[in-house]
Amino acid sequence: MYTIEKKECRISVPKYVKDYVNVAEFLEYCKECKNYDKVWSCPSYDFNPEDYWKEYKEFVVIARKIIFSKDVDEQGSYEIMMEVKEDMTRELYEMEKQFPGSVSLSAGSCSMCREEGCTRSHGKPCRHPQLMRYSIESLGGDVGRTVSKLMGYELEWVEDGKVPTYFVLVGGLLKK
Prior knowledge:
- The protein has helices at 13-20, 23-31, 49-54, 74-98, 143-151, and strands at 2-12, 58-68, 103-105, 166-175.
- By secondary structure, it is an alpha+beta fold.
- A four-stranded antiparallel sheet has the order 1-2-4-3, with helices on both faces.
- The longest helix is centred in the middle third of the chain and has 25 residues, at 74-98.
């Protein structure tokens, strides 16, 4: 049904920020998303994302390229993607334990409360603040450029309901 290619690279945070982060540009994209101001892991924030990056020295970027078989439909691809994202999240939490003071960045927005919905839109605090993680893009990172330059992949998207040959999930670990 699918196969996975795993890639990882390490880059200093100052170099990553210089070459791949543009908070102002990506904040504008975030404003167009349905999660803007509705999910705790998404902007708007009460902190400056540029300052967030500065707390760390090294960024371990992790990519999972999910290659679909031809019989996978849009719903099936979504289910596969969520399964791989959950596995990746568990792996990143384990990496956090190995490197005290580190924090992982999620592949896309938080999905911890997928079933019951995020509490932010109800003006309530996060149910799982110890598990919630920001994504690269929510902190101004250019995931498309990251994937192409650091991983050698080009992003593909669902078009007219047609599943692409692959999806790429990107997250990582920020280390002190």
